[in-house]
Amino acid sequence: MSRAKSPKTKKHNNLKPHHRHTKEYLKHYYPFIPLFASIGFLILVLFSPFQKSNQAVLGAYSNITPQQLLSATNTQRQLTGENALTTNPQLQNAAQNKAEDMVNRNYWSHKTPEGKDPWVFIANENYQYQKAGENLAYGFNDSASTIDGWMKSESHKRNLLDKDFTEVGFGIADSNNFNESGHSTVVVAMYADPLPPGSVSSTQSNQTHILGDSKSVLNANKYTGSTWGVYLVGAIMGVSVMYLAGAHGSSLRKKIKKGEKFIIKHPLLDSAVICLIALGVIMLRSAGQIL
Q: Are 288 and 55 in contact (CB under 8 A)?
């Protein structure tokens, strides 16, 4: 029994390109490369976990030591003509115990969760003093930036440069997620004017205590050395956003309504403006917290 042969059909390979992407064809897309690259950079800055702040650096990998903190502190004091501080073992223990207590119980305050003042840590070491002060910090990457952060705040600066203080103790503790800010290093500085040898033990009523105020130190403060840097960066970002909105806002809406392609006339300029905005976002992020 014979079978009728079905007619042969020509197979089409739909995977083959319909045309070649010549240089003439591709050159129309070249202007968009820097623009898309800068937009990608902006997205990375806004949403990358690394850019949360410098607080996402584990203290074990940060460069903060009591010796470096003391050296940076005395450098600032010498610039203003004040005497250099010396470390005291009892103050060192008090500051270290306070730092570890803050990390273990995850609180960001001069007072303990029970409401006890920080001076209880000094009292536990049987250290007698006439005057004491405390500065706190976390999220900084090194000793120099920690001291610089305190110098940017008037209350912390007064503690650091107080002419009455002669001794200091530094406590340093690491946390995997301190104050919901990721890996951080907590730094405690306890300054004091000790009682002269042979003096009668002082009571809290005749002791002077000084605490720093809570403040976030921005990268703009860190690099410009003043508060005007924050306003300058904010102004530049505002002008940049206004430029993009004014240059392309109405045109983009018209093109979308008509279903036409949106062609940017000045891609390099637009890319530079977007990168400027991204830089502004970085500068306005926190470099660390002080209290």
A: yes
